[in-house]
Design a protein that fits this description.
The protein is α+β, with helices and mostly antiparallel strands. Helix content is about 30%, strand content about 25%. The strands form nine sheets. The chain has a four-stranded antiparallel β-sheet with strand order 4-5-6-9, with no helix packed on it.
Amino acid sequence: MGDKNTPLLAVLQLLRKYNLKGTEDILRKEASLGDVEYENLDLPEVELASILTAHHTESDPYSYEFAYDTLKKFVENSLDINKHELSTLLYPVFVHMYLLLIIYDHNEHAVNFLEKFGTEQEDYCQEDLKRLSIVKHKDQIKGNELAEIYSTNKFVVQLSRDASSQLKRFLHEQKSSTVIINIINNHIQVEVHDGPGRTQAQVRATTGGILGEATRNENRTKVYYGLLKEPDIQVLPAPVEDEEEVEETPDKPKKKKAKKDNIFMKKPKSDPNAPPNDRIPLPELKETDKIEKGKALREASKRIQLGPESLPSICFYTLLNSGHTAVCTDICDDSTLLAVGFSNSHIKVWTLTPVKLRGMKSAEKLQDIDREAGDVLVRMMEEKDRDTCRTLYGHSGSVYKVAFDPFKTLLLSCSEDSTVRLWSLQCWTCLVVYRGHVWPVWDVRWSPHGHYFVSAGHDRTARLWATDHHQPLRIFSGHLSDVDCVQFHPNSNYVATGSSDRTVRLWDCLTGTQVRIMTGHKSTIFTLAFSVCGRWLASGGSAGELLVFDISTGSPSALLPPLHTAPIHALAFSRDGTVLSSGSLDCTIKLWDFAAITEEANGEEAGANNSIQKEEKFLLRSFATKNSPIKGLHFTRRNLLLAVGSYEGSA
């Protein structure tokens, strides 16, 4: 089959696509195409489009270099107000020119083209270009993840009306621009917005995703980011804890109690942005859970208000002799248990209080226990079997994430072995193995209300599960690469995911659809955290950058100065939402003034230019550890910050 037949085959494939049988048969007869060639009709969409629109320019490999050069000069000579937006066109045009040169077998020209203009692209694109440069022949396009993404999706570029008309004028006047016109028509989606062109800072704030920025329509859906109305819980007077104070001054508890009542009397008004309470079916609270919640509210009344003047104390737990084997950590909500997942597939759970971890009685002994007794959970525990640490065996690969449920009875873990396991913290055994992902599972998180959990993995999906179902309830697919981290919204109605495609997405648990796509990261996103109020989402990347997104609009409201020098693997908000803490592999913990960040964002809707100079003031304090990269952060109910890391020797 000669090369001259390729356009004919492309036309045939197009006729077959639109089911024009008669015309197809006539063309086959006239072109005398054999059955073998006809059966092998399987040109990728990108190749089909390029052949049909541009096969007359394919013969001249020099036209690509010339066309790119004229486009670059046009952007450089544009007015400053349009220049920064137009410059976002250069990268996608460059990539598609490279792929077209490969498709038309101009392989040497493609290599030269990449060498000549590749270094001029943005820093964050260099990693992608390295992966693209492996493609040296058109047969390799199919196996290359990035080449496939660019071939089958459109790159989104946002331009102002002025910039767009300037671009049209340029393309109209240039003789050499047919190549560029074809690329823009087939592979680039130009979104035109009203208003002036954006500044360099504004353009940089939202670029970075593998496929450019989000389109306008993708972030239009209404998101109920408010909190659910909590069920009324009777807060009993505090037991034992406060008795010591009673002895010293008998009238003190009265004062405290009055103050406490005020806190709980102020019932929050119903939030206009909150979803209806029955939008997602949530489990009924059991008696024991209500007692636990009451305890949490009592603790909350003793919480310390944090701010620039009163920073939290940090208690750092160091894992010694763990080498590089400790992978992930989690601390339960009431800060009494610490779980660590290791690369040798074990999970260890430690108690952080003097109360030891007890095992369960044997089956014979359990038969004698009165099941209706109020203290049945205490009675079923073995008195003699006490330990400060328990080990859970079951996974057959590195454990990438562990997570305690809100009521401290269950533990979730996910692993390289592509399973998620649910463990009981009473009998210390595995209860369920959830199989759904086919590749390693990177992250797993509980819903704040228990019962539901969400997992994310290498198969580019996140999945929503309920503890009583073997199969996932929802599969969230849409990311173009690994989903590396996942986080439940405080109202349990939404799930946020962060991916290697450098986007953060928000999904609706009810419908399973994507309701926000947030761009601005220039590297893989490793950790996410929702603010206490539910409106803001903080995300940390592998280049040490930290962004805060406004969920109501889907736009970045603050890019914090990149003071971390290594990937950020832990983020935690204080319980009152005023301080954001970030922990990184550069062995530092940084505290940020979140109240100031959100005020700034509210004050100057979505990142105006003057926020850039003020950013230094957002950092409250930086704490260094002794060569211990941070694996986890957790604020206790009284706002003490707990951090976990493994000591990596005095390097």
